[in-house]
Structures are given as C-alpha cells and as structure tokens.
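Example record

Each entry pairs one chain with its bound ligand, thiamine diphosphate.
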Amino acid sequence: MSLNVESPVVSTASAPQPLRLIDDTGHAVTDDAGGFTLPDPGTLLGLYRQMVIARRFDVQVTALTRQGRLATYPSALGQEACEIAAVASLDPGDWLFPTYRDSIALLTRGVKPEHILASFRGEWHSGYDQYEHRIAPQATPLATQALHAVGLATASKLKRDSTVALTLLGDGATSEGDAHEAFNFAAVWQAPVVFVVQNNQFAISVPLDKQMHCRTIADKAIGYGMPGYYVDGNDVAAMYAVTSAAVDRARAGGGPTLVEGLTYRMEAHTNSDDPSRYRSADDVDVWRRRDPIERLDIYLVSIGALSDQERAGIRDEAEDLATATRECMTLPVQVDPLELFDHVYAAPRTALSEQRAFLAAELAEHAALAEHAALAAQPAPITPSVSTPSGAHA
Ligand SMILES: Cc1ncc(C[n+]2csc(CCOP(=O)(O)OP(=O)(O)O)c2C)c(N)n1
Ligand SMILES: [Mg+2]
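Structure tokens for the complex follow.
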C-alpha cells in the first residue's frame, strides 16, 4: 500500500486581509466588509469607555507586579478590542470561559479588582463567584476552557435554554489537542458556542509561523464545518459586529463560530518574561501605531460622538478604579494552607484526608515552635528585689 501523494490539496490563496470597519488611522472603511456594518455611535462610545477603563486597570496591575506587590500578571495591553468586544457581545445569562490573559474581560463583566487579583496574589484559585458572574475560572492549562465551554453549550442545547458560551483562546492554544476536540465536537453537536481566538502572534516566545503552516487560524474552521472569520483584532467595531453576530447565530440554533482577532501583545508574556529576546522594538512600534483605543478615539471625534469633556470624564473614572485597585492590594493576604485540600473532591478521600491531617499537625507544631521562639526572644522579666524588714533579701 502506498500513500497517494499525487493529488495533494494545494491552496494558492495568499493571506487575506482581516475584516475591518475602522482602519488604523481611525477612518471608517468603505470597502465591502463581508456584510458587517458599523455599530451605532452610542454602542461605540460604550466600547471606548470600557477599553479606556480596562487599559488603566491593566497598566495599574502591571505596575503592582513591578513594585513586588503582586506575584504575576499576564497583561492584555493592546488586546482591549478583542476582550471588550467579546464581553459586550454576551447577554447577562451567557457564560464566559476565559484564560489567564483575560482579566480585563472579567473586569468589564463586573468582577471586582480584589476578586480578579486573588489568584494572581496566590490567595485563592479563583477569587470571584463564578455563578454570580457566569464566568468560569481563568484557565491556565491551555485550551481546557474551550472544552468546558462546549460542554456547557451542549447542555444548554439539550435543555433547550438560550444560554450561549463564549470562550477566549490564544493563538498558541489552538495547537493543543483540546482545542481540536472542542472545535470538532462543537460543530458535530452544533453547540451554541463562540470561539474567540486572540491571535497576539506569540505563544510566550514562539511566533505563530513556528506553530502552523496555514494562512490563518480562521481558515481551520472550514475543516471543522463551522464559519470562521479573520478580523482585525484591534478594531473593536469589527470585533463587536462579527462576535455579536456569532453569538446571535448560536442562540438562534445556528451552531458554533470561530472568530480570529489579529492583534498584538504589547507587554511581555508575564512580568517574568523578557520579550526583547525574541522580538524587535520596531515590530512593537508598528503595532503601537495600530492602537485600538487611539483609532476609535479619532473616529468618535470625527463623527462628533466624543468631546474633550466626555474623554476627561472617562479618564477620571479609570483613575478612580486604578486608585481602588492599588488600595485593595494593601490589604494583607489571608491564606489558610489547609484550604489546599478543599474542593478537590466532592467527598473526602482517605489519602487526601491523611495528607491534610499531616499538614495540620505540621502547621500546629510550627505555630507552637514560633510561639516558643517569640517567648524566648522576649527580654527576661526583671525580678524586683524585695527587702525584708531585717534588711535581708528574700
Ligand atoms: C497545556 C499547557 N501547556 C503549556 C503551558 C505553558 N504555557 C503557558 S502560556 C503558554 C503560551 C500560550 O500562548 P497563547 O495560547 O498564544 O496565549 P497568550 O499567552 O499569547 O495569550 C504556554 C505554552 C500551559 N499553560 N498549558
Ligand atoms: Mg498568543
């Protein structure tokens, strides 16, 4: 038996232009944008406000890591358009399945800074109420959250309710088997799920062309049998138009969609990474000129939808949030090491209970030793010499 290598599938198509509605210079795009149209000015102003606030939060949290007040933070600076458009496309009853990168999406959905940062401070696995916000824990194992999103969406379909799941993934995560399984079964089961892939062009230091040989990630959707869109991920208008149409389609029973947002990670992967080792300052500058907030600002001013006064008001709001974020980080971390064993299994397991008892005994021993050491370190009490009437010491 030999492999048939005579008729390979060959595509001569070059990389397409990403779909956009507002270009890098802040002008409305006049070409055909695949039938998508600009959201109304009120919606765009709302998205602008959320992006400005999200960026201020992101910059503040990065500063906290530099001051040593926070262990780690994966910044989403430059990716605000993808993050905010994804959240804005959802109804309050829908579910979001985010990654470690997507803290600003949580913020935009109403999670308090101290609850977002609890896990980055090492305080708790996920410091927010997932059911209240309808946001799954921020996933660190790549692409696992995509499977969870498909699971929830499939349950929603079986229950005939109208809940949609939206998951955020990185470009690197699409190289994982979990992403393939999620895309495939979402399509097979026609689950109401939207995959928003933030192609920020790197998986830590690995550029996308070292991970895949096809034109775009969106093209892969064809192979799974679902629609795929290649979108300018720094154009919030386009990201919102495409993603909200995908959410509406999913809710109406039309199945899953893959939306690829072409963007750029302006900061390091996390504060423990040095990006100067794998990308040039010139590349970063190119993307700085494609800033998602700047271009929307220019567009909104040009249509008379953003005044200096409104911009100043939004910046004040962002500044207040940054102050509140700094203040919440001055509160001491309260960690009980025994919590490590909680919520691992629904019912206690013998081996885990034994380990818990072992740790509890060790902690008690350390506490006793620490107390003893503290007592020993105290200066010895001065015993007053008591004189007897006879003058002899007692
Ligand atoms: C299953 C798994 N393998 C490896 C890692 C280590 N890791 C953490 S982040 C990362 C890069 C992910 O890149 P991408 O999906 O593009 O997301 P980005 O960080 O760019 O948002 C890797 C390989 C991991 N977290 N999970
Ligand atoms: Mg990436």
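Confidence is low (pLDDT under 50) at residues 1-8, 386-394.
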